[in-house]
Amino acid sequence: MLYGALEAGGTKMVCAVGTEDGKLSGREIIPTTLPEETIPRILDYFRGKEIAALGVASFGPIDPDPASPTYGRITSTPKPGWSDFDLLAPFRESLQVPIGFDTDVNASLLGEICFGDAKGLQDAVYITIGTGIGGGVMSGGKLLHGMLHPELGHMMIRPHPSDRYEGKCPYHHCCLEGMAAGPALGERCGIKGELIPADDPVWALEAYYIGQAIVNLILTLSPRRIILGGGVMHREGLFPMIRSEVRKQLNGYIRTPLLNDLEHYITPASLSDDQGILGCIRLAIKAKEEA
Ligand code: ZN
């Protein structure tokens, strides 16, 4: 049986089909322009592929509550044409298959838990740090939504005493995303994030902020694993700095065997950046099971 997967991002739409055991094929990348251009191209991709269900993971904020009248919509995005856009309606009408829907970051976490190193874990957090920062949470085996879904990237953090940067988030200035996402790194240093040299002091600040966010997550959600993905996390040397910040900032307050081994507690994404699209496959399988 084949399942459809759509990872809807603000710059690109990744489409693929896959099997229950996570073998992907026929991947196609479609640029995210205006919905009236982009959606027909995605529909063309899935038509005739005989998928049994579709899993959609989207940039957001989104409405993931099936009981809500605005279920399936991207709610507030500055991206022209996509604010309040009903992402699921065109697929429901044209494909006539069950559809699973969640945030891009919840799907990435699901991918890691079903197909990656975090296989079988019931309590874990996935954070992506790139152009923006977002996070997905699984607690007791269930992806966390609550009244909407977590927006971990906008958690408030304490600026480092030596950091004079005001922060780049248009809503909160110095939230985690405002201080630690790629554009904030770039603006601080006056060059693109990927060009900042490895010995620049900004990486110590970066580790301080990501470490602080992880400490907050440990204290509030008590996860058994924290997985870090996204472009910024490909930077070599950042993981050890983050682990050391977490140890320093927790300061021995929480004592569990898992925290004694931060190398296996704070880990990189393990699926070569396929965690999101594989999570979509799992969303599709679940939608089929529940239909
Ligand atoms: Zn913010």
Give an account of the 3D structure.
This protein is an alpha/beta fold and 291 residues long. A hairpin with a 2-residue loop joins β9 and β10 (142-143). It is built from nine helices and twelve strands. α3 (104-115) packs across α9 (275-290) and α6 packs across α7 (238-250). The two termini are 15 Å apart. The radius of gyration is 19 Å and the shape is globular. It folds into two domains: 3-107 and 273-290, ATPase, nucleotide binding domain (Nucleotidyltransferase, domain 5); 119-268, 2-Layer Sandwich (Nucleotidyltransferase, domain 5), CATH 3.30.420.40. The protein has helices spanning 35-46, 89-95, 104-115, 176-180, 182-189, 202-221, 238-250, 262-265, 275-290, and strands at residues 3-8, 12-18, 24-31, 54-58, 73-74, 85-86, 99-103, 124-129, 133-139, 142-143, 225-229, 266-268. The site of zinc ion (ZN) has 7 residues, from α4.
Summarize the helices and strands and which ones pair or pack.
Layout: E1 3-8, E2 12-18, E3 24-31, H1 35-46, E4 54-58, E5 73-74, E6 85-86, H2 89-95, E7 99-103, H3 104-115, E8 124-129, E9 133-139, E10 142-143, H4 176-180, H5 182-189, H6 202-221, E11 225-229, H7 238-250, H8 262-265, E12 266-268, H9 275-290
Parallel strand pairs: 1-4, 4-7, 8-11, 11-12
Antiparallel strand pairs: 1-2, 2-3, 5-6, 8-9, 9-10
Helix pairs in contact: 3-9, 6-7
Summarize the structure.
The protein is an alpha/beta fold and 291 residues long. It has helices spanning 35-46, 89-95, 104-115, 176-180, 182-189, 202-221, 238-250, 262-265, 275-290, and strands at 3-8, 12-18, 24-31, 54-58, 73-74, 85-86, 99-103, 124-129, 133-139, 142-143, 225-229, 266-268. The protein has nine helices and twelve strands.
